[in-house]
Design a protein that fits this description.
Elements: H1 18-23, E1 27-30, E2 39-40, E3 46-47, E4 55-61, H2 66-74, H3 78-85, E5 88-94, H4 101-114, H5 118-134, H6 140-149, H7 160-173, E6 180-186, E7 189-194, H8 196-211
Parallel strand pairs: 4-5
Antiparallel strand pairs: 1-5, 2-3, 4-6, 6-7
Length: 214
């Protein structure tokens, strides 16, 4: 799935037109492991972080993208394992290609703003992928109701400053399709894979490199 045609609209932020806002921007959520609480940058721009190390994995995906759903399921244990084992910083980027994705991406940020812990973050993400797969919520009211029923807290905040930072990441890695995985071995060794099969291959190579770490 590509968004090349919408590339020029990615910087359009209009709080009074919420639907358009999230259709034309990228909601990226950054996690770092180790029980570190959310860090707040200028103008309350949260960075949700899990993982520290010389290696980094950045995942660009869309909840409603079938290949993304496949990859999410494929690595449902691998990603948490990477975070738990240490040595890797994992970043999730919600790239809104489908109509309902902006809504889900926003509430993922809200959930992380309320509970930035590692387990809570994964619970919220898994919940949203499951909802997207079943088209289980199509309005904010539906999503809020179901999140409350699932015990997933959320705290709204002005996400625009965060989105400004996230858009910088999109441009830096030129990630305009989903799923896209960026494996950073070093500042000079950055490998990008798009599509299920290339990503699976890239993950195998990444895991082998991590095994060789001292």
């Amino acid at each position: 799935m590509t968004i090349a045609r919408e590339r020029k609209t990615l910087l359009s932020f209009n709080e009074n037109r919420l639907t358009c806002l999230f259709l034309n921007i990228v909601c990226v959520t950054v996690f770092l492991v180790g029980g570190i609480k959310a860090a707040h940058g200028a103008e309350h721009a949260p960075v949700f972080s899990y993982g520290e190390g010389s290696y980094e994995l950045i995942i660009f995906s869309d909840y409603f993208c079938p290949p993304c759903q496949k990859i999410h399921k494929e690595f449902s244990e691998t990603i948490p394992g990477l975070i738990d084992s240490g040595g890797v910083k994992v970043t999730f980027v919600d790239l809104p290609i489908y109509k309902l994705t902006p809504l889900y991406a926003k509430y993922f940020l809200y959930a992380l703003n309320a509970s930035p812990g590692f387990k809570e973050a994964l619970k919220a993400r898994n919940f949203l992928y499951d909802k997207a797969y079943r088209i289980g919520a199509v309005t904010a009211e539906h999503l809020e109701r179901d999140m409350k029923d699932a015990g997933i807290p959320f705290t709204p905040y002005d996400v625009r400053p965060s989105l400004d930072k996230y858009d910088t990441m999109i441009k830096r890695y030129r990630a305009y399709s989903t799923p896209t995985f960026v494996f950073i071995y070093s500042p000079k060794d950055i490998r990008t894979y798009s599509g299920s099969e290339p990503i699976i291959k890239g993950m195998k190579e990444f895991l082998k490199a991590l095994e060789k770490q001292p």
